[in-house]
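Final report, results section. Input specification for complex C-07:
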Amino acid sequence: MGDLIVNVLAKGKGLLRRALGSGQVTFKVMFSRFRQVLENHNRAIEIIADMGDKLGGDYLFDIAYIRSAYEGLYATLGSSIESFNVLTRDRYPQLKNVFGRIDRDIRLLVYDRAAEGPQAFGGEDQAIASLEFVLPYSSITLGMSHVAGGKNANLAELKNNVEIVTPEAFAITASAYDIYMRHNKISEMISALGGNDGPYKAALNEIRGAILSGAVPPDLARAIEGAMASLKTKCGDKCFIAVRSSAQAEDGASSFAGQFETVLNVPLESMRVQEAYKQVLAGLFSDSASVYLKEVGIDIRNIKMAAACVLMVDAKVSGVIYSTNPGRDDGTLIINATWGLGAAIVEGRADSDFYIVRKGPAPAIFSKRTGKKDSMIVNSDEGGVATVKTPVSIAEINSLTDEQVLELARQAVLIENYFRHPQDIEWAIDEGGRIFILQARPLRSEALKIESQVSGARVLMKVRGNVVQRGVGAGRVFVFKHPDGLDEFSRGDILVARNDSSEFIRIMPYASAIITDTGSITSHMASLCREFRVPAFVNAGNATQVLEHGSEITVVADDEDQATVYDGILRDVVEQARRSLAAMEDVYEYRKKRYVLRYISPLNLVDPLLEKFSPEGCKTMHDILRFIHEKSVMELIDNAMRGLKGQAAKKLDLPIPAGIIVVDIGGGVLNSVEPPGGRVALGQVASIPLRAVLQGMTYPGAWDSAPVSLKVNDFMTSMMRMPDIASGSEGDAWRNVAVVSREYLNLSLRFGYHFNMIDCYCSETARNNHVYFRFTGGATDMVKRSRRIELISIVLKNYGFNTKSKGDLIIGRLANMKKEDMEKILDSLGRLIAYTRQLDAVLHDDGKVLLYANNFLAGDYKL
Amino acid sequence: MSDHRVMIIDDEKIVGDMAKLSLEQEGYIVETFLNGETALVRLAEQKFDVVVTDLKMKGIDGMEVLRTVKSLYPDTRVIMITAFANLDTAIEALRGDVHDFFPKPVKIKELKASIQRALGG
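Structure output:
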């Protein structure tokens, strides 16, 4: 036995050296880097949360705060990347570039720096060339307005997430703007913009001329061509698009409406589209736009123009909806409609039909006014649009049926609820009666006095805890059991769960509020709630028990550490809260300063199994953090498995024949002074996670279904049972390894033909904690093995794991959990490991899967 | 609704804009100024119940605003806000009979409560 271990050690050292290169990085060093990454990660998340809080509308803040908070974040994240690069031996060199790029965007905003000249970007030719010039809407999210512009980002968000119809479209990005300006040497002219009115106007004029007479760079032309070709596969050769401005800062700013250029009904031909694109670019430098930009304090040199290329709808009727009536606080919305295209309404040029609809569970038309629609705008056959006289027969009749009015109202409410803000929506209905949403943007609304009108409502809960996102939400209670159950979640429900989880992103856009019994204000879920503005409250104690699934409630989370839950749906209170937020967002300075969060808070990398989970997929500082965290855990797992034998290894005495060798990297084993090859008694195990797992594995009845009376800590029993190790030679049995510290465990177990792996960090700080469980293989046929996977999946989900399985492999992850809860989970995993050793031998049919899963969950381990 | 007048002086537009919106929701009449000079000119022609001023500003700073207000308009209460809070400035401001002193970022709710107290509410 001793020889064997020495051999293994020698082999292990060789492997270790090869794996780590000549740097002689031991696992201990790795582990300390990992802890540095964790610490920085927490600090950074706290800064992000604080920024979200301070910039959330409840504080008066100034640029000094943003600068100092951001510098703190920058330094923390920078040092996190350093540690991460050591940990991963520079395997993700791109991460630094991505970090640099996001940092530059942020600094432009935070320090109000003018766009630097082309020299300043000189070293980054490649970076710019590799950015995408054209994006399909399927790859654009709301947080990407700096890439695709505000209009694209809003419309793509709707297209991808809300059950409404929007026309096919693609975006020409801000990077395309960059390359166009550089290719035509206009960048220099833009950076040189200055001077007073006269010369300034002349310079603008010159820039417009240069843009219109410029050439589309070949790379960009090819990209546009590609997007057009893919559009043609959907609409045929004979179709038209609208090329619309989508400026970066146009994000959410309704006041930008009409400042820039839109070219309607452009035939899908290269030259025509390119010409329209140039017009849209030139629109940024029009006199009126520049005056406007100056007025609102945006430096024209800092803004880039993207373009939205949206398939034209052959509109029979078009118009605009204000999803909340700005003039009245009475729960109504207004719809304007006219024959043909809606440009006349948008530009305020023509009379139109006017409808007021009362919102609520049973929407109804409140009033109608028929406009005198003398003229209408229509698409011309060869492209462009024309104003024509409206046929007399229809000029003075309603352009919408009542059903259409109500359907439009329904969709408007859907959109308002999605964005949690009153919306200004453009729509069109084609000859076939199909409704298309063409655009949605936040509606400017009047500042209204906010008063809570909750008197008389019955209080169900008044709890102390932590408000993650302030606000008011009303809806039906949905008590979360396990991730699969989320399919049953309906739009507008209020999620009530035991723990917080980033898994909730699936329902977040539709949730009216989220309440969790435990959780942290700095978790990923918390960040997501802030991003989506979902009123959320964590550490609510026993909400899952007090609030009844299916009942209707209103959650008011308006204090820092207190939330009140009322019986029933209090519509007035919800409406008022929404208006209050809308009012603050109408303060331009506020919106402008808050904009910086777009580069910091949103989390795009949620699922580590998706392809975009890469440095290049990182769009925000939060993404970078998430990436580092996930990959650090993975790195640790890999290294624990590879490098473990370079450390002092000891056999663990257990009352079950699990054959585990323990490698202590710090505080995992008491009195660990013996030489390699010594033994560790169960009582010496100080590693919190290992102790919990072993407690489960040795739980009476879990390891062996035969009625044996095993006693934990019973040294004699363990000695007696040692020899009857189930499979192979005695040497084989000692291939199971636990790498431990006081708070860390990496356990790999092989029983017969199947493997279990647990990687876990279990400390007093909930958000440092993670557990990763992997199970694979098995001696029996594939069908039985799959059944075992199915059973494990049921059990893991029941414990709240996010699971992925394929064939006979299953992976479960869980994070951000209190130590005590984590210990319980680890105990259960220990039992599961013991229980599943021989399980597939008895899983003769699919029906047995559920039976045994339920037995296990009920504590019945008999097979 | 009250008809109390509140003046906000801060060299960053966002502070005035946000404060104006929040305080108008409470029914106050609010005027905002980006520097001490114009604010003092306005004070000479209109009585304000509360002046909320930033401490560090170019030209006439918050301390000077405080001194002027205390000598010319003793009924007007002054609330000081600053990004550069330290004990010395706080003590100096308090000696100058400042009603309240807040480090930035200031929680709007607390500012509202402070203004209410200043008005004897």
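The interface with chain A takes residues 10, 12-15, 17-19, 21-22, 24-27, 81, 83-84, 104-109, 111 of chain B (CB under 8 Å). The radius of gyration of chain B is 13 Å. This concludes the modelling results for the funded period.
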